[in-house]
Design a protein that fits this description.
This protein is α/β, with parallel strands linked by helices. It has 2 domains: 182 residues, Rossmann fold (3-Layer(aba) Sandwich); 47 residues, no CATH class. A 6-stranded parallel sheet has the order 3-2-4-1-5-6, with helices on both faces. Helix 1 crosses helix 15. The radius of gyration is 19 Å and the shape is globular.
C-alpha cells in the first residue's frame, strides 16, 4: 500500500488521483483513504479541501464527509475506521492509497499507536471555557514545562487536548508512550510531497483564494450555526475567514504547512519527493517508482 503525506496545498489529493490512473493502467484497483481531521465532516468540504465530485469519480475516497459538523471526532475513532477499510481493501486485492495532511491521523491509520482515551465531558468543557475566555496562551501557560516545550503557543487544538489530559492525570502525547513507530501494520511506501518555499507559498495563496471564491466563509458560518464541535472548529482558516481576513487565513496555512513538514521529517521511513516544477502526473510517477522499488516500512522494520 501507499501513503502520501505533505503540507497543505502541496496537491496530495490531485497526485493521488493521478497515481490511481497509473495503477489502474497496470491492472491494480486503487482506493483512497483520507487522513484529514476536517475532511471527515459533512459541510466543511471547501474549508478542508475535500476531493470534489470529479476527483471522487476518478478515485474512490473513504472517510470523507462521514460525520455531522456538531459531532466530536477523535484519532481513536478514526484509527478504528481507517484500519478496517485498509484491511478489507487488502483482503479484496485492492491497493489502498492513504492520503492526507493530519499527521496523527496518518500515523493512526498506518501503525498501532498508543492513543489516549477521551476525557470526561466536564473537564473538556472547563478547558474549552478557559481557552475561549483567556486564549490559548493562558492554557499553554498551565502545561507542564516539558509538554509546553513541544506545543506551539498558538496551536489551540493541541494545547487544549494536552491540558485536558494533564487535568485528569494522563500523560500527553510524546511523554513516555509511543506516538509513532516504524513498525507499520502493513508493508507501506511512505511518500512525503514537498516543494520549495516560494512554490508552496504560491500554492497556498491560490488555495485560499479559491476557498474564498467558493464560499468558505459562508460554509464556516453555517457550521457555527449548526453547533460545530470543538474538533470541527479546528478547521484551518475558519476563524480568519469568519473575520473576512483572507491574508490571515493564508498566514495560518503557511504556519500549519511548516508544522506538517516538521512532523513529516520526524516520521521514520518517509521518502520525500520534491514536486517543485513538477505536474501532478509527474509527481505521481515518482511515487510509482518508489512503489516499484519496494516499501521501506514493512512490519517489523525499525
Amino acid at each position: 500500500m501507499i501513503a502520501i503525506f505533505g503540507p497543505t496545498a502541496a496537491g496530495k489529493t490531485a497526485v493521488a488521483v493521478e497515481l490511481a490512473d497509473l495503477l489502474r493502467a497496470r491492472g491494480e484497483r486503487p482506493i483512497a483513504v483520507s487522513c484529514d481531521a476536517i475532511q471527515v465532516y459533512r459541510g466543511l468540504e471547501v474549508l478542508s479541501g475535500a476531493p470534489d465530485a470529479a476527483e471522487r469519480e476518478r478515485l474512490e475516497h473513504e472517510l470523507v464527509g462521514i460525520v455531522d459538523v456538531d459531532e466530536e471526532f477523535s484519532a481513536g475513532r478514526f484509527a478504528e475506521l481507517a484500519r478496517g477499510i485498509i484491511d478489507a481493501a487488502l483482503v479484496a486485492g485492492r491497493t489502498p492509497i492513504v492520503v492526507g495532511g493530519t499527521g496523527l491521523y496518518m500515523r493512526a491509520a498506518l501503525a498501532d499507536l498508543d492513543l489516549r482515551p477521551p476525557v470526561p465531558a466536564a473537564v473538556r468543557a472547563e478547558v474549552e471555557a478557559l481557552v475561549a475566555a483567556r486564549g490559548p496562551a493562558a492554557a499553554h501557560a498551565e502545561l507542564e514545562p516539558d509538554v509546553a516545550a513541544r506545543i506551539h503557543r498558538n496551536d489551540r487544538k493541541r494545547i487544549a487536548r494536552a491540558l485536558e489530559l494533564q487535568r485528569v492525570g494522563i500523560d500527553p502525547p510524546g511523554r513516555g508512550r509511543r506516538l509513532w513507530t516504524a513498525r507499520l501494520r502493513h508493508p507501506t511506501v511512505l511518500a512525503g510531497i514537498v516543494a520549495d518555499r516560494t512554490e508552496l507559498a504560491e500554492r497556498i495563496d491560490r488555495r485560499v483564494e479559491a476557498m474564498v471564491a467558493a464560499g468558505a466563509a459562508a460554509e464556516a458560518r453555517a457550521a457555527l450555526a449548526a453547533g460545530a464541535s470543538r474538533t470541527a472548529r479546528a478547521a484551518l482558516g475558519l476563524e480568519e475567514l469568519l473575520a473576512g481576513d483572507a491574508a490571515a487565513a493564508k498566514a495560518a496555512h503557511r504556519r500549519y504547512a511548516r508544522r506538517q513538514v516538521g512532523w513529516m521529517r520526524r516520521m521514520a521511513g518517509v521518502e520525500t519527493i520534491d514536486r517543485s516544477g513538477r505536474s501532478d502526473r509527474e509527481t505521481a510517477a515518482a511515487i510509482l517508482a518508489l512503489l516499484d522499488r519496494g516499501p521501506g516500512g514493512a512490519p517489523g522494520a525499525g
